[in-house]
Specification:
3 strands; 5 helices; rod-shaped; 159 residues; Ubiquitin-like (UB roll); alpha+beta
Length: 159
């Protein structure tokens, strides 16, 4: 997806710079769309492209990378459109899914409360595969400590 976003940005800049070879348009507005849980201010604070500055392909590409590095997003792309004598820059973001609930099925040997107190994953946290696997390992070790060597822990992620 990053390659597509970069290509869109590049093509726009190539077309726009051909039409306006002397100067780049000024960014008159920056909008962040697609946010559900993450605050817009947290994303805007990371941006190097600023309102009132000429649009910069380098800054916009770097901003896409920076937003991805925050770790909360599956997809980030940038688009621009003419706006009040300059351009409006949109960062279109798709957040990673979050954990809605954690439940145990088929657990007969250990108390659910005991299992939950060992978890580092909680409702509302980002559904990160590494975090899910780490918690699967934690539960597996707890079963081993209790003498249940053959316990099989399988995380089930529903979309």
């Amino acid at each position: 997806m990053q390659k597509i976003a970069r290509l869109v940005i590049f093509l726009f800049f190539a077309a726009y710079s051909t039409l306006h070879a002397q100067e780049l348009p000024i960014v008159n507005s920056i909008e962040i769309t697609g946010l559900k849980r993450i605050e817009e201010g947290a994303v805007k604070a990371k941006l190097s492209q600023k309102i009132g500055e000429p649009i910069s392909q380098e800054k916009t590409s770097e901003d896409i990378k920076t937003i991805f590095k925050m770790g909360y997003f599956d997809d980030v792309k940038a688009e621009i459109e003419p706006f009040e004598g300059g351009v409006k820059l949109f960062y279109i973001i798709k957040e990673k899914p979050s954990i809605v609930r954690v439940e145990f099925q088929g657990n007969k040997e250990l108390d659910d409360a005991k299992l939950k107190e060992k978890l580092t994953i909680t409702p509302g946290s980002i559904a990160d595969t590494v975090l899910i696997q780490d918690n699967t390992t934690i539960i597996g070790k707890l079963y081993e400590e209790e003498g249940y060597w053959l316990a099989n822990i399988v995380p089930i992620v529903k979309k």
